[in-house]
Amino acid sequence: MSLDSRLLEILACPEDKGPLLYFEDESSLYNPRLKRRYSIKDGIPVMLIDDAETVDEAEAARLVAKADADGISPTFEA
C-alpha cells in the first residue's frame, strides 16, 4: 500500500523536523541525518521516536545508495 502524496509532502522526522526518504517497497521512512528508520504498518507511518530503528553504517549507506539509484527524493525540501 502506497502512502498518499499529500501526506508525504508534510511528513517530517519527529525529532529533527527534517525531510524523510520514503521506501515504499520496504514500508519505511528513513532519516539519513539521524540514521533512523520509521516503519509503516497497515499503511500508517509509525512516527514515534521510541519505536524507530537506528540503523548501522552499512544499512545507512545501502539506503542512501538505494534512494540515489531509484530516484527517491526527500518528502519535502528543507
Name the overall outline. Answer: globular
Q: How many β strands by DSSP? A: 5
Number of helices: 2
CATH class: Mainly Beta
Largest sheet: 5 strands, antiparallel
CATH architectural grouping = Single Sheet
Mean pLDDT, nearest integer?
Answer: 96
End-to-end Cα distance, whole Å, is: 26 Å
Q: pLDDT below 50 for ≥5 consecutive residues: which ranges?
A: none
Domain count: the total is 1
Q: In what range is the share of β-strand residues?
A: 15-25%
The value of Rg in angstroms is 11 Å
Which fold name is given in CATH as the topology? N-terminal domain of TfIIb
Q: Secondary structure elements and their pairing?
A:
Layout: H1 5-10, E1 21-23, E2 28-31, E3 36-41, E4 44-45, E5 53-54, H2 57-70
Antiparallel strand pairs: 1-2, 2-3, 3-4, 3-5
Structural account:
With 78 residues, this protein is α+β, with helices and mostly antiparallel strands. It has a single domain (5-70), classed as N-terminal domain of TfIIb, CATH 2.20.25.10. It is built from two helices and five strands. It has helices at residues 5-10, 57-70, and strands at 21-23, 28-31, 36-41, 44-45, 53-54. Strands 1, 2, 3, 4 and 5 form a five-stranded antiparallel beta sheet that branches. β3 (36-41) and β4 (44-45) form a beta hairpin.
What's this model, at a glance?
The chain is an alpha+beta fold. Helices cover 26% and strands 22% of the residues.
Features of this protein?
single chain, 78 residues, alpha+beta, N-terminal domain of TfIIb, five-stranded antiparallel sheet, 2 helices, 26% helix
